[in-house]
């Protein structure tokens, strides 16, 4: 599941102030995740559900559901005389077993049922529950079902109903054991008014049409946790591909053509083949469907039937900046990690979300090359680190949450992905290679998926399977990276003794070691580079607060790379002269080494500043990978000065839109310059990238002034794409005057799309906070 709501709204969010995680305090007190007095564990069960059969009818006008459900359950012990199911906002009409009524009562969100006698594990009980209710009394995403209908404010809204089961929301539309630690098969038989259709889990058993109503019978035969049961009702247009013999279907709103649907979803069969091969387990379900739902947030990995935000559909111009690749590959990866195997309890959510995030990076590398994979992991590291510094520090596996939503953070997703990349690095002894199913890492994952197929797992199961499959004892790794928090903060210095041909590499770990943050023990790849292309590789185990390694090198190293592919989630300072950084930035063999050099060159002040600036200008112009050019643009923006400004303006001509976007952002340092402002206004009106236009609007707005306000007002008037409108509204949010507020207020009214209205409301909130 991607936990973002509307990505376009996220870009309006204010940046958090920085603290130092759990181990320091801000003015409001310690910045601690969750509630240390709370420890969440999975609830105990007295029975196992074998199957849910939910037969239901939906009243689209009233937002009601009328259900007739059969829960097939088997006691886990002798003498089961009563049990409960989770149920909220549902009227229970009656409960029966073999046609005989059973006493029942509601206690909060529990439906308690009293059986006619004691039952044992030999008994399979078909308990029938007839119910009705309006399950939409809570806001998304806690509603269980969301009814999407046109109204006076939103006259263009489609008619849709979709479920959102994660984490424990399906009991708002059918009684169930609503926790992931039980798995069952399921069948959903849903009747809706024509011309609406229903997408659900598994195979379509039957479809009937009569008297203006349509009934769809879907059945999933692979056991799954109940939160993965789903429905998506709408006037769908369906496009199809195939993965082998299995249907791969895309359900999109009316009017969306096949080219648009395939632009977002067309790589799905290739992704399915990639994951099936690399993880050694073929796609396990009857079919795979994806629906593009209105007003949906991000995506959720319902078993064999993923739901995605309608906003992931985009035109050809948006593909360069807002592709669906990461979202689609992330949700697909969940069909293995999260659906086929599922965590026992939410504290192990990283076993779903970390794996899906890492898998999306793996697929990006497969699709775009190794540098793209490494850059994705780098971005995951940076995202996780911002949370660690700015919000809190916690272990990946942490029981101190109040609600499961709290655990869906950057530590679970992005740090989880970074840790899985490090795990592969450790298991491969630091050897760089294209992912193959026969390497130790993927052999262990194949065994893990196979052993726990259609079952539940915790982190210890993964540790045990690695040990069993490869013989590697990696409990120490998981203790550091999963059961504790933080990361190593390395400071490195080097000295070469030419007489002894000895390079001394001193490494210090400067993080504060405490109950949350350990002293890290990691193998580190060191690479020594000479003036004439010489190279020497070494592996060292870094595990002390301070230690010095002596390496025999037959020539004078110009620079030393410490973890050149950036596998280790860390901060790094290396005491080396500007000349070494310049050499690394222009001659470094790995993309990540050059990117790190660009970041460090941007910090150079005083003596050496000119050489650093000139090197960054060359890197911005020439580096082979756009991510390094982006880092160079950011570094030049932080340095300021006329040469940097000229280089950034020149970068606006580069074909890569990511580089142009970074150049625009960096030019914010010069936005009061008339020439720069003119260029920003030109690109806001006429760049082939929505992202560049949006960044121009943000940059102009943050610079202030009447001229920029006039330009932003003119941009609103032409009703740009919602991608660009996001930037325009953020730009306007920097103004406190009534004119800007009135412009933004207008976008909250009838005629604007749901996305634009939500962004405008957020901008108004930000403007009000600034005035207060």
Automatic annotation (TrEMBL):
Domain Peptidase M1 membrane alanine aminopeptidase, residue spans: 266-481
Enzyme class: hydrolase
Example of a GO MF term: metalloaminopeptidase activity
Assigned EC number: 3.4.11.2
Domain Aminopeptidase N-like N-terminal: 50-228
Catalytic activity: Release of an N-terminal amino acid, Xaa-|-Yaa- from a peptide, amide or arylamide. Xaa is preferably Ala, but may be most amino acids including Pro (slow action). When a terminal hydrophobic residue is followed by a prolyl residue, the two may be released as an intact Xaa-Pro dipeptide
A family per Pfam: HEAT_2
Family, as annotated: Belongs to the peptidase M1 family.
Name this polypeptide is given: Aminopeptidase N
